[in-house]
Amino acid sequence: ACDGAAAGDACGPAGIGPAAAQAREQPVLEPVLPAPAEEQNGTDSAKAPKVNCEERNTTGIERFTLQILNVSQDLMEFLNPNSSDCTLVLFYTPWCRFSASLAPHFNSLPRAFPTLRFLALDASQHSSLSTRFGTVAVPNILLFQGAKPMARFNHTDRTLETLKDFIFNQTGIEARSDVAVTEEDWEGPLPSVLTKGIDWLLLFSVLFLAGFVMYATIRTDSIRWLIPGQEHEHQE
Known about the structure:
CATH topology of the domain at 67-186: Glutaredoxin
Keywords: Membrane, Transmembrane, Transmembrane helix
Protein name: TXD15 protein
CATH class of the domain at 67-186: Alpha Beta
InterPro entries: Thioredoxin-like_sf, Thioredoxin_domain, TXNDC15
Strand order of the largest sheet: 1-3-2-4-5
Pfam family, one: Thioredoxin
Order of helices and strands: HEEHHEHEEHHHH
Strand content: 5-15%
Shape: elongated
Oligomer: single chain
CATH architecture of the domain at 67-186: 3-Layer(aba) Sandwich
CATH superfamily of the domain at 67-186: Glutaredoxin
Helix content: 25-40%
Number of strands: 5
């Protein structure tokens, strides 16, 4: 549940399965490329980007926005394994308040980095992808180069500025300075309002457990005499 997640700053996505509990103990994903060595010259030298992203051509694009995958769309269809372009992917759930608070900030990122791509998907509807990329809590943000995950956003302060810093530190691409969170970003495309839903898996589990307990209780010989019509059978 949302309020029961570890560290109190993430929500556990539904539909991931029992393996998520074990996956929680695994170390977080770190950038694959090693960090460059710093020059020992007494001054802070500029660090080379950890991920060399191929910036896309923005000619003819008038509106920069993120794309939300529906339940029938596969993330791997939007990632080109033969390309070095970069995509920032958000795993979220519409019932998680931390995902909702992140939404307007993530909605503004495509305008800040028009040469990068931004995708979002409901982790509860894409449980196989959540397990594949170690998403045991949402919101979870991964930076892909081609079809390979390169870095994970691990900050608990999820704002436009911290997201800008994360992208710059990983790719060396500077954000546009005139971009800020607007009222339109609060409206979409990523929802910033919580939606209520029914956890059908949990409901089925509770009903199954209740039915099993009732069946086991009725079948117990020691209490059959409490049930009308079973007294003579018990005496015989």
